[in-house]
Structures are given as structure tokens and as C-alpha cells.
Design a protein that fits this description.
Blueprint lengths: L12 H15 L11 H8 L3 H13 L3 E4 L5 E4 L4 H12 L6 H18 L6 H15 L5 H20 L4 H20 L6 H20 L2 H26 L14
Antiparallel strand pairs: 1-2
Length: about 260
């Protein structure tokens, strides 16, 4: 080992079991709801002790990949990792990095047009109606701050609905994660009262919806690109008015 280079930490056996189980899931083409082999079978499969298998299963459960059940049909069952569970480690990483609107829109300007184009022709009548509902909610005159805040949330929900139909799971995840960061930024910088921001968003969303109905990918890409540039401008104006504050808060408080 080169002088001055820190020694690489030897992985725990239970961590190796975690990686072995994940490789086994992929190799066996397992799906959420499928049952893992029982404890004895895992001991034989991976050649480790019972206590190591148990520690590995506990780690998989903490990471959201399995759910342990008791009773006659008990055991470890695979489950789909939720967006919140998957995003939490990334939130923890970003917690002290002082993110602002510029950082978020650096990515949104690139990714949201790609997301929008990817769902052209993939939105059925029900999904188009859900998009329409978010727009109608944002086009109404808010009666109070609660309704105004609900409109800002609905604006982001428009984009989350697009992510729901995106065929690229990675693109959908990143776009949803950025939407959550943007929601938090508006909460902590009290951006709910910026009504011109909402009016511009509703206008773009209305035109985007028509582009989706028409199946016009070129128009959708152009509109979403213009929408992101316009939204970034509004965000910069808002930040200049309210000053800078820390974006991220502890997970337990961010939905308050």
C-alpha cells in the first residue's frame, strides 16, 4: 500500500451478504412481493453464519428493500423502495451544501424538457385530466395564504405527474427529487405569496397540456425549456427579495 494512503476499511460480512442478496435478486429476476429464501437456505447459499445472515437481512430492511413478516407465511419479502426512502441518503448528503434556486435550475433546465418529451404519447385520458385539475386549481384566485400555498404545491404536482409516466426510472427519480428540493426552498424562503410566479406557471402548464394532447413533442420541448428559464428568473427575483436562508432542514421537520 502506498505511503500516506489510508488503509481501505475491510467490509463486514453482513455488508457482503447485503450485496450478495442484491445480486441474487437481479440474477433471479425477483420482483416486489417475492419471498427470499429462508434463513437456513441463505446460510447455505452464501456460506456464512446464521447471525451474519440475520444482520444482513436487518440491513436490507432498514434500506427498504425487504419487509419481514411473522406467522405461518412469515419470512423476508421484497418490496419496492419508496421515493422518500431512496431520496433520504441524498438529502443527508446535501444537508450542509447550502443549495439555492440556481443549483436546482441548473439541472431542471436540462432534465425537465427531456422528461416532458419522454411522456408525449404516453398520457391517457385520466392522466391528462389530472394535469388539467392542477392547472384549474392554479388559475383560481386564492382566497387566503393556505389556498396560495396549495397552488404552489399543485404547480409542482403537474411535473410530478409527468414523472409518473416517464419510461426512464432514473430521469423520473431525479426530476421528482429536484421538485421536492424546490418545494422545500419555497417553504423556507416563504415564496408562496409570489403570485406572478404562479400566473406564469399556469400559463405554461396550460400550453404544455395542449402540446401533450396534440402529441407535439417539438412544441412540448420548446415550451418546457422556456418554462424552466422563466421559472428560474422568478426564483432569482424571489431570492433577491427574501435573502438567503438554508435550504434543507432535518427530515422530520420539512413537511411542517
Amino acid at each position: 500500500m502506498p505511503i500516506g494512503q489510508p488503509a481501505r476499511k475491510r467490509p463486514k460480512l453482513s455488508d457482503l451478504v447485503v450485496e450478495d442478496v442484491k445480486r441474487w435478486i437481479v440474477a433471479q429476476r425477483k420482483q416486489p412481493g417475492d419471498r427470499l429464501p429462508n434463513e437456513k437456505e441463505l446460510v447455505e447459499l452464501f456460506g456464512v453464519s446464521k447471525s451474519t445472515v440475520r444482520e444482513g437481512l436487518k440491513a436490507l430492511e432498514v434500506r427498504g428493500l425487504i419487509k419481514t413478516r411473522t406467522g405461518p407465511a412469515g419470512g423476508a419479502y421484497l418490496q419496492q423502495v419508496s421515493l422518500d426512502h431512496a431520496a433520504e441518503p441524498l438529502r443527508n448528503f446535501l444537508h450542509f451544501h447550502q443549495l439555492d434556486g440556481h443549483h436546482i435550475y441548473q439541472l431542471r433546465k436540462i432534465l425537465e424538457p427531456e422528461l416532458a418529451v419522454s411522456v408525449v404519447g404516453r398520457l391517457d385520458a385520466k392522466q391528462l385530466d389530472l394535469l388539467e385539475q392542477t392547472i384549474r386549481q392554479c388559475e383560481q384566485e386564492p382566497g387566503d395564504d393556505v389556498e396560495l400555498r396549495a397552488q404552489r404545491v399543485a404547480e409542482l404536482e403537474f411535473h410530478n405527474l409527468l414523472a409518473d409516466r416517464c419510461p426512464n426510472a432514473l430521469l423520473a427519480f431525479v426530476c421528482r427529487f429536484l421538485n421536492d428540493l424546490l418545494r422545500d426552498l419555497m417553504v423556507f424562503k416563504n415564496a408562496w405569496e409570489h403570485r406572478h410566479f404562479g400566473e406564469a406557471n399556469a400559463s405554461f402548464h396550460r400550453r404544455l397540456l395542449q402540446g401533450f394532447r396534440d402529441g407535439d413533442a417539438e412544441t412540448v420541448r420548446r415550451l418546457m425549456t422556456e418554462h424552466m428559464i422563466d421559472a428560474e428568473t422568478h426564483m432569482h427575483e424571489m431570492e433577491a427579495q427574501v435573502g438567503t436562508q438554508r435550504l434543507l432542514m432535518p427530515a422530520g421537520r420539512r413537511h411542517g
